[in-house]
Amino acid sequence: MAATNALRYDVLRVYKELLYLGREYPLGFENYFRPRLHKAFSAKSGLQDQAEIKKGIEQAEYVKKEIEALYYLKRYRALKQRYDKPS
Amino acid sequence: MASKLRILVPVKRVIDYAVKPRVNKAQTAVETTGVKHSMNPFDELSIEEAVRFRERKYPVEDILAFSAGPAKSQDILRTAMAMGADRGLHVVEEKTELEPLGVAKVLQKVVEEEGRNLVILGKQSIDDDANQTGQMLAGLLGWSQATQASKVDIEGDSVTVTREVDGGVETLKAKLPMIITTDLRLNEPRYASLPNIMKAKKKPLQKKSMADYAVDTGKRLKTVKVAEPPARQGGGKVEDVGGLIGRLKELGAL
């Protein structure tokens, strides 16, 4: 049980980081991102196996990177449209 | 002799790029109250470039982020420090909107006081789009400048900058100290993550006022009127080819 508790903080950390990232999500935070994030985490709340929990955390880290990339691209495209000379 | 890089990165707090600006009722400015603000995207590129210099093992001594403006500009400086700047300097100016020349004069003082030898600025801010501050600062200091950089390499004292110009690129070589302004394709700025923002709260942030610099930042420009761009006019339909030709002739396209 003690080892599961150690992972508990990792899960909470990545959940909080995702919540923070989601505040700027283009489709909305309150009505889109947060419920979905919550659902994704609660769907796996029953996991007991260490390895599987670690896998879940890895997946969350991957999603984090994807969202960061999405934000970057969105901004890059908006700026390119506004500031680049048409070629 | 290879000198250590003491970098200054000025950042500006502007209305977020994703927000559609609204003109106020008096048609004197853009509505800013209750609107989401963030760091000017071109300034994010400059912070990122400074941080990458360090990661590329250039002799970076320290990276100072600077902002002049209302108290909330502090958040932007925290973001800059979360991205990797070492410390922040906030010059508080609540009342007036600063003009490029005023900011350049303050920056000149900061460069002298802090012994900077490299200033990386965003090429322009997305609110007033002046594209002047970097150039004015270079003029005031008498330093070399490379604007709209898309690639920067430093070797010892010499800096090689690739710039984006009309219809191609231009490569410049100059000696430190110098001014660089960033263009969109310079790099891909990292996201200021939550843990890094928390860590940035421990980094030193110095607060100063305009009076500390004793420079004239008075208004030289007067905004006559701010107006929305004209709404796009819808297209029209023509019946057949004859109608199309007739319409084109009418418009003088044929």
Automatic annotation (TrEMBL), chain A:
One of its GO terms (cellular component) is mitochondrion. Transmembrane segments: none annotated. It holds the Pfam family Complex1_LYR_2. One of its GO terms (biological process) is negative regulation of oxidative phosphorylation. It comes from the Eukaryota. CDD domains: Complex1_LYR_ETFRF1_LYRM5 (cd20265). Belongs to the complex I LYR family. This is LYR motif-containing protein 5. The lineage of its organism: Eukaryota, Fungi, Dikarya, Ascomycota, Pezizomycotina.
From TrEMBL, chain B:
One of its GO terms (molecular function) is electron transfer activity. Keywords: Electron transport, Mitochondrion, Transport. One of its GO terms (biological process) is fatty acid beta-oxidation using acyl-CoA dehydrogenase. The keyword Transcription does not apply. Residues 27-217 form the Electron transfer flavoprotein alpha/beta-subunit N-terminal domain. It comes from the Eukaryota. It is found in: Mitochondrion matrix. InterPro entries: ET-Flavoprotein_bsu_CS, ETF_a/b_N, ETF_b, ETF_beta_N, Rossmann-like_a/b/a_fold. Binds 1 FAD per dimer. Binds 1 AMP per subunit. Pfam families: ETF. Its cofactor is FAD; AMP. Gene3D superfamilies: HUPs. GO terms for cellular component: mitochondrial matrix. The electron transfer flavoprotein serves as a specific electron acceptor for several dehydrogenases, including five acyl-CoA dehydrogenases, glutaryl-CoA and sarcosine dehydrogenase. It transfers the electrons to the main mitochondrial respiratory chain via ETF-ubiquinone oxidoreductase (ETF dehydrogenase). Heterodimer of an alpha and a beta subunit. PANTHER family: ELECTRON TRANSFER FLAVOPROTEIN BETA-SUBUNIT (PTHR21294), ELECTRON TRANSFER FLAVOPROTEIN SUBUNIT BETA (PTHR21294:SF8). Belongs to the ETF beta-subunit/FixA family. This is Probable electron transfer flavoprotein subunit beta. It comes from Saxophila tyrrhenica.
